[in-house]
Write a structure and sequence with these properties.
The protein has a domain at about 50-150. About 60% of the residues lie in helices and about 0% in strands. The protein contains six helices and no strands.
């Protein structure tokens, strides 16, 4: 299916994205919407989500949450960062392949997907950022997700 092919392409490209990966990311919907410059609410409300997006974001949070203390203290090693970055990139690929948001919500999600991929790249030693900075970028994207997207029970990370 075209979604599977596009998801595989996106995952292959994830390793070549620049640190500013929030620029233009291909997405599975095929619509032509301008990327928002900044995250905004939907007329004062959080954007709607779907189950694949919620599941994927919960998985990414579950990957990062138990490692936060080691990330902040500088105790997470290079191999652990690489593994974490690869796992996050895999989850992002699943989100891209499976979520089906309405076009405006989808366009708002693109910068967060870009930040997650840029963070995952940095954790894997790509993109010019230190792995800890990549982890921080991913954590900030998760926290922004909770601020701008309706995900009942969502808890950000510190």
């Amino acid at each position: 299916m075209q979604y599977t092919i596009l998801a595989a392409t996106l995952l292959a490209l994830a390793g070549t994205l620049p640190a500013q990966a929030g620029e233009a990311l291909p997405h599975h919907h095929g619509h032509e919407m301008a990327q928002p410059a900044t995250l905004t609410l939907d007329a004062g409300k959080k954007w709607n989500t779907d189950q694949p997006l919620r599941d994927g974001m919960l998985q990414i949070r579950a990957l990062l949450a138990p490692r936060i203390a080691d990330i902040h203290s500088g105790k997470l090693g290079a191999a652990a960062y690489r593994q974490l970055g690869a796992a996050i990139a895999k989850q992002v690929g699943g989100i891209v392949a499976d979520c089906k948001l309405e076009p405006k919500a989808d366009a708002m999600l693109h910068p967060l997907i870009g930040e997650l991929l840029a963070g995952a790249d940095a954790m894997q030693g790509k993109g010019g950022l230190e792995p800890a900075a990549g982890a921080h970028k991913a954590v900030m994207a998760l926290n922004d997700y909770g601020r701008y997207f309706n995900h009942p029970g969502w808890q950000g990370l510190k």
